[in-house]
Specification:
The chain has ten helices and no strands. By secondary structure, the chain is mainly α. Helix 1 runs antiparallel to helix 2, helix 1 runs parallel beside helix 8 and helix 2 runs antiparallel to helix 8. The longest helix is centred in the middle third of the chain and has 36 residues.
């Protein structure tokens, strides 16, 4: 049994509780983006829809594991002195799911980089290699102690976090490099590329910084579970990054369509849609824009009230009679 100080116990439990709350909020955003995707992109290929559904399912399963872990820490084993050193099975499964979601998202962006770089295996192949996943999850579940895991396999978890950050940086740098190469000197088209580049950087930085902060706490304070609370949120950030990339096609392709007269196409590889007819336009969205012109005609009718009309007629009749009398005279 590993005895922990009261300060470490409070810090660890607080990190687990706060991490679970953040995960719940981020999981709600994942669900919202999934619903938005299936409403906006009904014509996507079945394989693309399956990818989105798999990421959503893994994320929901991860949320369930976090909820189970919180129940074990705060209800089932509440009051035990070494509770924050114990690795419950739900925690081990959540770490495995985090690694699996990370790999799925990395492969998705690596494939996009592969297509954008014109099938450059030398760049994308090293990015796709991750061998640390099964070791971390299996050993944590087997040892059932963070302290024991830190003594024997500290380097494995460290390697996993480092590789995640490095792969994020490589993918972001590669996508930005090839996007910049597609600049054609057209002002509006370059503005679209700048928006895509900025979006890519923001996605890469968000996940990379969170992973690095978790790594720092793992190395500096391994006896406090601050790194675990941060690690809970990593999978949610990757899932949101993937879904946001899918849903961003709506606005990006709408801007790209406006550049059709200049002969440019947005150089980001998007999933192909069915039923577009022309194979040369595969991968682009059918975003026909209809313009409606509404013309409002205001018609004004001037009329004279009946009473005024009668008075006018009487006056006119009197004038005629008076004129007739004068003519007799």
């Amino acid at each position: 049994m590993v005895l922990l100080s009261e300060s470490n116990l409070k810090t660890s439990l607080g990190a687990i509780l706060f991490g679970g709350m953040v995960c719940t909020g981020l999981s709600g955003i994942v669900g919202m983006q999934t619903v938005l995707y299936f409403r906006l992109f009904t014509r996507d290929l079945t394989s693309t829809k399956v990818k989105v559904a798999v990421v959503f399912f893994l994320d929901m399963l991860h949320s369930a594991m976090i909820a189970a872990a919180n129940y074990m820490y705060f209800v089932s084993h509440f009051g035990e002195e070494d509770v924050t050193d114990r690795v419950f099975w739900a925690v081990g499964v959540s770490i495995a799911l985090t690694a699996l979601i990370t790999i799925c998202v990395h492969l998705f962006f690596a494939f996009r980089l592969f297509k954008l770089s014109k099938r450059n295996y030398w760049i994308t192949a090293p990015i796709s290699l991750r061998l640390d996943i099964p070791v971390t999850a299996v050993e944590l579940i087997r040892l059932k102690s963070f302290y024991e895991f830190g003594l024997r396999f500290r380097w494995v978890f460290t390697l996993g976090l480092v590789l995640s950050s490095v792969v994020d940086g490589l993918i972001t740098a590669g996508l930005c490099f090839y996007l910049r190469r597609h600049r054609g000197g057209t002002g509006r088209f370059d503005h679209i590329l700048n928006a895509v580049t900025l979006y890519t950087i923001e996605n890469g930085l968000l996940t990379s910084v969170t992973t690095l902060v978790s790594l720092i706490f793992w190395l500096v304070k391994p006896d406090e579970l601050i790194y675990l609370g941060l690690h809970f949120a990593i999978s949610k950030l990757y899932a949101n990054s993937f879904l946001a990339s899918m849903n961003a096609r709506k606005s990006l392709m709408a801007q790209s369509t406006s550049q059709s007269t200049s002969g440019h196409r947005l150089p980001v590889i998007f999933p192909t849609q069915r039923g577009l007819g022309d194979r040369s336009n595969a991968g682009q969205l059918d975003l026909a824009i209809q313009t409606r012109v509404h013309i409002t005609v205001d018609k004004t009718t001037d009329y004279v009230p009946e009473s005024v009309h009668e008075n006018t007629s009487s006056d006119q009749l009197s004038a005629d009679q008076k004129g007739a009398g004068m003519s007799r005279t």
